[in-house]
Amino acid sequence: MKDHITEYIESGILELYLMGLTSEAENEEVEQLAASHLAIRQELDSIQNTMEQYATAHAVTPRPLMKSLFVATVDYMQRLEKGETVTHPPLLNNNSHVQDYAAWLNREDMVLPANSDSVYIKLIGYTPAITTAIVWLQDNTDNEVHDKEYERFLIVEGTCTITAGEDSYTFGPGDYYEVPLYTSHVIQVTSAQPCKVVLQRVAVE
Where is each Cupin type-2 domain found (predicted)? Predict the structure, then answer.
């Protein structure tokens, strides 16, 4: 039995369990063995402590946009779990109009909460190739460069200046812009109100 427990510990399943990558059956097996074998309980504690120390040592403050995208993704998944119908907003292009997205923009839940972060995002469509969101920008964005996806904007409310490379462009409601690939870019909000946009990221084929 001792050899079996040692082999089980060395199999790597305990690490997978703590990372949430095991099946329900495997979870049940780990928990049953941990309840009856001190060595497994101690190994779980040791692995967890090591993971926490590593996470603390390598922790970084997430950029506002990345944090907002993560929160928006969790929100979108929860909405789908509660029965929201999957939709496919139209592809943004030079001929797009704000009215094309009225079905999403006019929804009661698509509003900017009070005391929100500088970037607030609500996903309205997702496929592996296309992500579409309504975004409220209240401050300047961090510098970004995209090499695997096109980033497209349609301004709904407010105004902003997008600086891409050495060029700057001023935009207002109804304006469309696609950021060139491999080009560093930042957005500066120039209106008193938040700049509300339909944002779409399209994977490069």
Answer: 143-198
Domain ranges of the chain: 2-57, 64-203
Give me the CATH topology for the region 64-203.
Jelly Rolls (2.60.120)
pTM to 2 decimal places: 0.68
Helix (H) or strand (E) holding 125, with range, is strand 119-126
Residue 51 neighbours by CB distance under 10 Å: 13
* Enclosing H/E stretch for 130: strand 130-137
How far apart (Å, rounded) are the C-alpha atoms in residues 188 and 195? 9
Q: Which two tokens stand for residue 31?
A: 């928990």
> Could you tell me if 160 and 137 are in contact, meaning their C-beta atoms sit under 8 angstroms apart?
yes
Mean pLDDT to the nearest integer, 43-57: 82
Token reading at 124? 């309205």
| Torsion of the alpha carbons at 65, 69, 72 and 76, rounded to the nearest 10 | 160
Taking all residues of the chain, what is their mean pLDDT, rounded to a whole number?
90
Residue 90 DSSP code:
P
Phi, psi of 129 (to 5 degrees): -100, -25
